[in-house]
Structure formats: C-alpha cells, structure tokens
C-alpha cells in the first residue's frame, strides 16, 4: 500500500569468497601469500603508490566445505591465523600498528559477508499460524566494545565460542536500540568500529521432533554484521535498514541453552551503503602527512607516512548521526520443511471508483464545541464543482458527517477488482505431485469474500471491493483485506499457512499528478528520521504510534523516509492508517 519509488533497494546476497592471497600491481607484482609466516619486519616492501587488489575468488582452494545447510563450519581457522599476515604485510607501508589492525578488523567483518550466506529467497515477515511459531529474542543483551588498540581480539580469542562476560567487562544493552546513547560514556556514543553482543535462549525439543525449520531473523543491524550460534558462523550481512535471516536448525541444541553472538561494525566506507570515508592523519616534529584507505578494495594511496601521532577519522556523505547497533526485532520462528517462501500481489480496478471529489487537508483538524470534527478540504484548481480561480485552491470546511454522506452517495457507482497473486515455496519433495494453493480472500472482519485453488499463480475477481484510500480521502482509510494462503498436496495435506494483508488500489502518475485509484492525490506531509532520544534508531512502538497520531492530527497524509528504508512494522502502521510512504533507499549522495 505504500508508494515506493522505482529505485527502492532490494536485499540480495553473494556467494563469492575471500581470496587467500593478495597481489601487488601494476609493476613488479610481488605476491604476498597469507600462509607464509614472516618474522619481524623482514618482508617485501612495496613502493609508494602501489595498488593492492584482492585475488580472483575462483582461485580459492576447495578446502572450504559446507554442510547440507550451507553453513560454513571451517570459518574458525580460516578467519584467523593465516590472514594475520596481511597485517604484517601492511606495516612497512607506514601504517601504525593500531591503524593496520583496525583496517584488518574491517576486512574480516566486511568479507565475512561472503563466508556465511543468508537466505536468498523470500523474506516474509514472521507470523504465527497453524503451521508457524514465532518467538522474540528482544530484550537485554550483553554488550562490549572491541578495543581500538586491538580490534581483532574477538576473532583471535574466539569470543563467539563463549559468553561475552567471560572475555571481560560487559554492560547490559537493550535490543532493539542504538547503543550510542544508552550510557554516559562518550567513547561508546562516538565509537566507530566493532562491537559485540550476545545472549542465551532456549528452543523446545518438540521443534526437533516435528522436523521443523528454525529461522533466526534480524530486522536491521547497522551496518555490517556476523552472527554465530553456538560457535558456528551462520549469517553475515551488510547494509543496515534491511532484514536478513537464516535457517539455523542444524546448529541448535534442542531442549537446552543456546548462545547467539553478533559482531557489528558501523564503519562506513566509499563502497558501503550509505557512504563514508575513513582517513588517517598524523604529525611529526617537522612534517605533516596523511593517507586515505579504502579498506574494502585494498586500494591504498600513500603520499607520505609516519608512525607518530596517528589519528583515525570517520567522515560521512550525509547529515545525520551514525547511530549503530541491533535496531529492530530479532525473531526466532519456525516453518515446516515444505514452506511458503514468498507471496507477491498485484491489484487492478475496473469501473468507477466512486470518488467524484478530492479531499485535501487545508487546516489542522479541530473540534468546535460538541459538534463533529471539522476538517479542511479543498477542490484543487479549476474543475468540476470548483470556482474559476486561475488555478488557486478554493478551501472550505466540511464536517466528517458531511463527508461520509457524500461518500455514501458516491459509492452507489461501483467498481470491480482483480487480485493477481504468485506464491513461491521451498523444500518440496519432487517425488510428490505438484502442490496446490488454496487462496481465500477475507475482509477486515475476517469474513470470507472469495476463493481460488491454483498451482501457485492465480487471480481472484470481486465486485464492489472496498478500496484502499489515503487518510482524508475516505471515511475508512487504509482498508485492508487478508489473503490467506494454504500450501497443500494430496499426499501431505496442508503443509503451511500464511496470511498477507492486502489493500486494493492502483498507483499511477502523469505529467502533473499522482493518482490513487484514478483520483488525484496531493501529498502533504513530512520528511522524517527514525531517530529519537535515548533509543537512537531503535524500533519503539510507543514512538511509532505517537508519530502517526501526530501526522493525522496535523492533517497530513504522507511522509518520506529520509534517507533509508524504515522498519517493516512502521510500514504496516502506514498501511493500516492510510498514510502514503515515499520509501527511500539508503544510498545517500552516491556518485
């Protein structure tokens, strides 16, 4: 139901892997192999202006087996000792030891994204049903910074194999929330780099007995994350503001305590989304120099180098604070082995939509005495039922009762709608016949409207549907049906059930107007951030509800997500409240 621009970012994953060597280019091309152990500083010294590039991923040895889940069980040895040679290799380039290790820590976390895959299929919002169970891992987690002087220590000492409290001092950290403003510690507020979270949780043995898939899902972690469960790397993800998940059933201890550990990196580089830049400056007695590194591509330009008085600076291409942490819900949920992976829906409308006038807020809604609420309304420009006014708006006031009466009269001119849907699934045994989808359309009260039985793709036609209208364009804005999908087969019976809220509406535009259901919509609203005091960008339902109440109270009908996708829960609020959302991708000032 949201208005989403065509440049909306879609999450995706990659199966590339970190090369085990780097090659110096473009001249002498000395090769620095990770497995080689150097001592002291007697290693090849590269000339100024040398460019270092990652090797071809196809050259990686085959010694990185994965089990049936695709979960990499060899990352412990792969991520640690061999690649420490990269740190040694960069020292003669003039980088301070602290900064070199810091840069390498970024490499581990960034390129860890390629070592543990996330689910690459659909990512339906977790929902309880006859076939699904949902639990939350929200609450108070354990938290600690990775020390700037030794950011690799968590990887080197395998913090993910034990509780964080066993590694040193931790503090309680709420999830979801940004970690920046939870304490009075300036070092935590302004921290750039790695932080660590962990918590324990239980799963019932009945999930194992029923042979269920068990998914761990993060709504958003800013900006790069690696996730371990019981010491096994199960997920890596980069780009905050987007959800990611993985089936972790194979690494769980059923009927016992489990441990989840998350390493989070909020560093932003020229190749990250959104963009930033990490630079190092330093001074000596009589000279000043600097170097700028793009740590992801290992492109290094050195103008001059010293080891004295080093300072690392993170800069950004945007004008908002770099809040970081686990910002949205963490869910643990189950599906059957054969499950509904994704559902896509498209609606169309034929006939008269029953709206011969437009309602636009001109003034803040208010009450006059004990009478009905008064809202400002406008007829835009010249046209039917408007005065000739050279394009100026003629505003007048109507009570909500007047509006309802006019809408009831207009609704006598009915329309029809077609709901086209496509269902995808995973895990089906091909020895069985193709599964069927039993698709029911239910109204707002849960009453049956229509049904279709199909092999995954079909359409439902209904007469006189209730349309989804923005706030102040209908007496019941944000009307949603429910598309109930049951995946079944003759041999297995019903395997999975999912219910998707659906609004019937069309969105079009021409050279002058944005059209909802064929009628002009004038957007009045705000550009806003998810930021709030204390919580940062952490999702908080109280604040979300208050924001929507303020939007409606002031007579607005829309807002723009400056400058990143908001939480799915916020979008769900918008659907139900009849608020139009211009949903932005998080790439700010991208060249």
Structure commentary:
One of its GO terms (biological process) is glucuronoside catabolic process. The protein has 591 residues and is mostly beta strands. It folds into 4 domains: 21-114 and 271-316, no CATH class; 134-269 and 322-336, Galactose-binding domain-like (Jelly Rolls); 340-507, Sandwich (Immunoglobulin-like); 516-582, no CATH class. It is built from 9 helices and 35 strands. Strands 6-5-7-13-10-11 form a 6-stranded antiparallel sheet. Strands 4-19-8-12 form a 4-stranded antiparallel sheet, with no helix packed on it. A hairpin with a 5-residue loop joins strand 25 and strand 26. The chain is globular.
Question: What brief labels describe this structure?
Answer:
35 strands; mainly beta; six-stranded antiparallel beta sheet; Jelly Rolls; four-stranded antiparallel beta sheet; 591 residues; Immunoglobulin-like
Radius of gyration: 28 Å
CATH fold name of the largest domain, please?
Answer: Immunoglobulin-like
Reading off the top of the CATH hierarchy, the class of the largest domain is best stated as: Mainly Beta
CATH architecture of the largest domain: Sandwich
**What integer is the average pLDDT?**
73
Strand-residue proportion: 25-35%
- Helical segment count: 9
Looking at this structure, what is the CATH superfamily of the largest domain?
Immunoglobulins
List the domain count as a whole number: 4
Strand arrangement within the widest β-sheet reads 6-5-7-13-10-11
**Unreliable stretches covering 5 or more consecutive residues:** 1-104, 283-308, 355-397
Q: Structural class of the secondary elements?
A: mainly beta
Give the number of DSSP strands: 35
Largest sheet: 6 strands, antiparallel
Percent range for helical residues?
Answer: 10-25%
Shape: globular
Distance between the termini: 30 Å
InterPro entries: Beta-gal/glucu_dom_sf, Galactose-bd-like_sf, GH, Glyco_hydro_2_cat, Glyco_hydro_2_CS, Glyco_hydro_2_N, Ig-like_fold, Ig-like_GH2
Organism: Timema cristinae
Protein name: Beta-glucuronidase
GO cellular component, one term: extracellular space
């Amino acid at each position: 139901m949201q208005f989403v621009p065509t440049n909306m970012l879609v999450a995706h994953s990659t199966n590339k892997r970190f090369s085990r060597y780097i090659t110096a280019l473009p001249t002498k091309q000395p090769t620095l192999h990770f497995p080689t152990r150097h001592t002291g500083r007697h290693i090849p010294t590269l000339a100024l202006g040398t460019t270092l590039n990652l090797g071809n991923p196809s050259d990686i040895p085959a010694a990185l087996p994965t089990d049936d889940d695709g979960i990499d069980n060899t990352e412990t040895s792969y991520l640690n000792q061999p690649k420490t040679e990269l740190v040694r290799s960069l020292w003669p380039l003039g980088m301070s030891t602290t900064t070199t290790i810091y840069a390498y820590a970024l490499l581990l976390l960034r390129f860890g994204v390629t070592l543990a895959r996330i689910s690459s299929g659909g990512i339906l919002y977790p929902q309880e049903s006859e076939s699904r169970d949902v639990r939350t891992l929200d609450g108070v987690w354990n938290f600690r910074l990775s020390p700037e002087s030794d950011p690799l220590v968590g990887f080197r000492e395998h913090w993910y194999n034990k509780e964080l409290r066993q590694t040193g001092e931790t503090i309680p950290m709420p999830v979801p929330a940004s970690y920046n403003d939870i304490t009075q510690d300036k070092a935590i507020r302004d921290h750039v780099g790695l932080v660590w979270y962990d918590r324990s949780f239980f799963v019932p043995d009945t999930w194992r007995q029923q042979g269920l898939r068990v998914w761990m899902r993060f709504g958003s972690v800013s900006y790069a994350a690696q996730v371990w469960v019981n010491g096994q790397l199960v997920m890596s993800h980069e780009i905050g503001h987007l959800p990611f998940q993985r089936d972790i059933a194979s690494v769980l201890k059923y009927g016992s305590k489990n441990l989840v550990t998350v390493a989070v990196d909020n560093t932003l580089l020229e190749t990250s989304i959104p963009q930033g830049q990490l630079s190092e400056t330093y001074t000596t007695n009589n000279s000043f120099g600097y170097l700028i590194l793009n740590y992801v591509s290992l492109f290094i330009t050195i103008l001059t180098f010293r080891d004295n008085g080093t300072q690392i600076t993170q800069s950004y291409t945007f004008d908002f604070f770099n809040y970081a942490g686990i910002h949205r819900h963490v869910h643990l949920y189950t599906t059957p082995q054969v499950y509904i992976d994704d559902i896509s829906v498209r609606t169309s409308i034929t006939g008269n939509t029953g709206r011969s006038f437009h309602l636009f807020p001109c003034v803040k809604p208010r009450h006059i005495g004990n009478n009905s609420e008064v809202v400002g309304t406008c007829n835009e420009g010249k046209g039917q039922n408007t005065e000739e006014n050279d394009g100026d708006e003629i505003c007048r006031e109507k009570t909500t009762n007047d509006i309802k009466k006019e809408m009831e009269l207009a609704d006598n001119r009915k329309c029809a709608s077609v709901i086209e849907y496509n269902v995808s699934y995973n895990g089906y045994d091909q020895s069985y016949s193709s599964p069927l989808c039993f698709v029911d359309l239910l109204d707002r009260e849960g009453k049956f409207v229509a049904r279709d039985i199909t092999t995954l793709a079909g359409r439902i036609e209904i007469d006189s549907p209730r349309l989804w209208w923005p706030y102040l364009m209908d007496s019941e804005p944000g009307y949603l049906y429910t598309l109930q999908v049951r995946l079944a087969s003759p041999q297995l019976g019903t395997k999975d059930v999912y219910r998707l809220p659906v609004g019937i509406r069309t969105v079009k535009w021409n050279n002058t107007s944005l059209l909802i259901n064929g009628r002009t919509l004038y957007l009045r609203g705000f550009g806003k951030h998810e930021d709030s005091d204390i919580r940062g960008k952490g999702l908080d339902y109280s604040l979300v509800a208050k924001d929507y109440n303020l939007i409606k109270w002031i007579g607005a009908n829309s807002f723009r997500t400056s400058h990143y996708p908001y939480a799915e829960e916020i979008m769900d609020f918008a659907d139900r409240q009849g608020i139009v959302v211009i949903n932005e991708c998080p790439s700010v000032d991208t060249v």
